Structure formats: C-alpha cells, structure tokens
C-alpha cells in the first residue's frame, strides 16, 4: 500500500530506533533528562529563541502557547482553515476561556488587509484582541508557505496594536525548505512557536514550543497540570533529534514528488487542479465527474490511499516513506485513471 493520507503516518526507521536505544535518559518532570534538556536548548538556539519545551503533541504546543499569551475572554485572530480552529476539539474555549476569530484568508494565510479591520476597538463590550495566530505551512490551506516580507508585515501590524504572534509551525520544516528562510528568522516575527517532529520529519511522537525563558517556565507548570509531564522522554527527544538531522534534508524530494504528482493529475481530464497551489508536500485536487469518496475507493483498490478534503476534493500528502519507485506506480495509476 502506498499511503498518501498524511505525513503523520511515517514510521520510525531502524536507524532511528537504534539511536533511541543509545539515548541517556532521566526523569524530565525533575528536569533531569539530559537528552531532552540538550535537545530543547538545541531547538531554541536553532530558532533564535531563549528556551524550548518538549510536548506530546502539536495540539498541546498550540494550546499552551495561546494559554500563555491570553487571559480569559481574549480573542485570537486566525484563518478559518487554521488547525487551532478546526482540529483541536474546541480546546481554546475549554482550556483558556478564549474565543477565536476566524478570517477568510488566502489558502490559510493571513495578511494586514484582512487582519487590521478585525482588530477590536477598546470599548468595554469588545473582547480584547490579543493574538494573531498563523500557520506555516498551512495544512487545510493546502501546504502554502509565507514569504519573508509577508511575515514581517504581520509582525509589524501586531507590534502597532500591541498584539502577540503565535506561529503554528507543525510543518515549519517544509516552509523553510520551500522558502529558504533561515530558522532564526522566525524568532523575530513570533512570540511563541510550536514545531512538530512527527509530521514529515518522521519521529514517532513529539512537538516543542519555543519562546522566552519566562514563558517556557510557566509552560512547564501548565503542561504538568494538563497531564503532559513526562518521564524518560530522552528516548523521544533522541528520535526527534535524529529526525531533524537526517530527515529534514529529505523534504525537498517530497516537494518535488508532490509537483510531479500534481502535473500528472493536471493531464488527466478526470481531475482538476490549480498547479500554482502546489507549494510543498501537500496536494489538493478535485475530481470532476464523481465524488471524492468514490475516487478514493478506486485508488484504494489499486493500493494507493488518500483522504477526502471535501465532497469533490482529495488531499495527497508526500513524505519520505513514499520513494521514487512508489511515485512511479502512483503516476501510472493516475495516468490510466478514468
Ligand atoms: C498536525 C498539526 C498540528 C498538531 O497536531 P497533533 O496531532 O496534535 O500533533 C498542529 N498544526 C498543524 C497545522 C498540523 O498540521
């Protein structure tokens, strides 16, 4: 089976598992796991932030970040396709008593023109606009990434209005690969960043939030309160470190395969795709004559799996465990599809 449902399905490689067995571990609730301590600082340094905190999921990373940046009743501006808005079980309302203000952006991306009118005036009856939450790359937005000047513009707007910026960087690795932006740049445009090791990088578990020392200290306590205090997680930090070192460089190939795949899709009249929307490892395309579910079933009968992303829309996500050999097979099925 060739699994293009998501880049979260990647499994640990034998080399990664071997690295994990060598990890020196301790109890991280006591802050005595040397491997996780070292890795948190390594990631903080990489992104130009003061400190980092390993968390079990991207959802916890996003929710902890918003919790740190807001007070109950505050409002967070976000694109309507945002992960925080769609895929986190309503956590922002439940855990932080905040509300989200979804805006209709461009493939999941926000800009000054959209955000500025949504910033509330300062009347007693207005919620306090407190945070701009952006996603890079966008997931439901189809893998779009921000250019440097777009991020600078959002940060400038946030500064003018005394707002914080949270960056959901679940796929920041893909964004950096596609845009050429260096990691330390992101600390200049965001107050909190969450990054994931378990998407295209292929670690079995793990995300991290990056911010100031002060915020990360508070985040440790909230993480414990929310049941995310973990013990010998040097094992997981080692896997994540291995993923950053060895799998980050492979993302460019995923992007190339996504391009090749989308070109084949564009040549078959059974499908519709806007090739200019294929930026990274995620491909969204439509089926013309039938439903997405039907088309997915037909592909699945030939050993290729996708996920539906709307009644007529399918998402294909490329990752390093789909190689050129697999791609060849997929291209053949796409060509012969009718
Ligand atoms: C996957 C993802 C997350 C985090 O998901 P978890 O399953 O909680 O690790 C956050 N943001 C985006 C954009 C994602 O794609």
TrEMBL record:
Q: Where are the transmembrane segments?
A: none
Keyword vocabulary terms for this entry:
Aminotransferase, Pyridoxal phosphate, Transferase
Q: Does the keyword Lipid biosynthesis apply?
A: no
Instruction: Show where the Aromatic amino acid beta-eliminating lyase/threonine aldolase domain sits.
Output: 3-285
| Cofactor dependency | pyridoxal 5'-phosphate
The answer to whether the entry has keyword Transferase is yes
Q: Which Pfam families match?
A: Beta_elim_lyase
Select a single GO molecular function from the record's annotations and give it.
transaminase activity
Family named by the database record: Belongs to the threonine aldolase family.
What name does UniProt use for this protein?
Answer: Aminotransferase class I/II-fold pyridoxal phosphate-dependent enzyme
